[in-house]
Design goal:
Layout lengths: L6 E4 L2 E4 L9 E4 L2 H6 L2 H10 L5 E12 L6 E7 L6 E3 L10 E10 H4 L3 H11 L14 H10 L1 H6 L27 H7 L12 E10 L2 H7 L5 E8 L2 H21 L11 E3 L3 H35 L6 E7 L1 E10 L2 E10 L2 E2 L18 E4 L7 E6 L1 H7 L2 E2 L9 H7 L2 H10 L3 E4 L2 H6 L8 H11 L2 E14 L1
Parallel strand pairs: 3-4, 18-19
Antiparallel strand pairs: 1-2, 2-3, 4-5, 5-13, 6-10, 7-9, 7-11, 8-9, 8-19, 12-13, 14-17, 15-16, 16-19
Helix pairs in contact: 4-10, 5-10, 7-9, 9-10
Length: 476
Amino acid sequence: MDIRRLERKSDVLWEIPQRGQMRVPGLIFADTALLQDMDDKVCEQLGNVACLPGIVKGAMAMPDAHWGYGFPIGGVAAFDPGEGGIISVGGVGYDISCGVRSLSLGISRQEIMPRLERLMKELFSEIPAGVGSTGRLRLSMKELDKVLRDGAVWAVGRGYGSPEDLAFIEEHGRLEGADPSKVSEKAKERQLKQVGTLGSGNHYLEVQYVQEIFDAEAAEVFGLKRDHVVISIHCGSRALGHQIGTDYIQILGGASQKYKIPIRERELVCAPINSPEGKDYYRAMACGVNCALANRQVLSHLVRKVLKRVIPGVDCRLIYDVSHNTCKKETHLVDGRPKTLYVHRKGATRAFGPGHGELPDIYRHAGQPVFIGGTMGTCSFILAGTSRGEDLAWSSACHGAGRSMSRRQALKRWKGKNVVSSLKRQGIILMAASMKGAAEEAPDAYKDVRRVVEVTHRAGLARKVAMVKPMAVIKG
């Protein structure tokens, strides 16, 4: 990226000055090296988002930002419905409510190592992964509608986990406002056999251990101890979310013309939040969120089921579950006054700070856990939301390392079997549903997650709590 086009506001904050049709400036959280590694399309897309009606404060990009459809991945923007604010498919993405759920096992890596290989074989057998993978659940349309309305609450009611889990899931496991009638039959049909599946792409299940703790007090509250084992699950709403995005790109395309909203890129099609089309998309998108929350709840149940067989007596406690592809109706301070905004986070994680009413009581003083996935060959991080993050970016943080090269580029450079071998030499087990997927997810295809997290921490978006290292990974 040509940084001469930007104004430097601090060592980790850059501004795209408001010009032309931009209603607000663009804001990029990055250090110089990360900024120079970003493609120029990030700047262009932020400028386009900044032109949308009702946008408040700025069009923002997190330190892991890269080019996406409409919004950059790592993009954050809030819209005021009272000022003609819009809702956009491009601001959510096609993998609605893709997110991370982490579970603490309460045992050390030394205790799990003798059983790790068996554990991974049984998890790989129990948890469907890969393109088009289907699970053992066979739902009727009527039952699927319950999933879309009730999310993880439905899953717990069906015996997948316990009611205690719900306090540790964003929105307490169910996003209000979901209306299954706003989801197409095609989307539902594609999802009938996919609840309880991992999927493909960058989705994973990873057995990790806590290598380093940065904030001892927050780590204790989250139940993290040095050398103890964590299992993280990264996946979303599967085929249903993708089809909702596909359907509503067309619907909102018509709405953009109907309401004469100037669109600078096709994937930025949108509708006023308070319009019939805008309300319909929000209701369908909420179904996608609930589908993802239910999916991760069922996957947690399958993990616990396997652990019970392989390591009897292990205490598998849910730390938290939070998404990074959503539009949420939230109350934030604007010019010192509370306002209802629709916050789009695409490849960005909600990161509520200490004292927020949505947090479980046990986390109220620490802030919300935030999970930042790295790569299967490096490390990942657990952060905590901050009060400053509310002022900076609507309580938002990064979501991962961010790709440094496309999947096509990665396939030209690596072979899946070589990725498996390389990880094995590092002592990391990789079980992949396809060698193509393994090659696409080669660790060197991503940015340095340590640098991304350091910028997030220095900016005050979220603070470092712990770093976890991979021991074994399942990839789709």
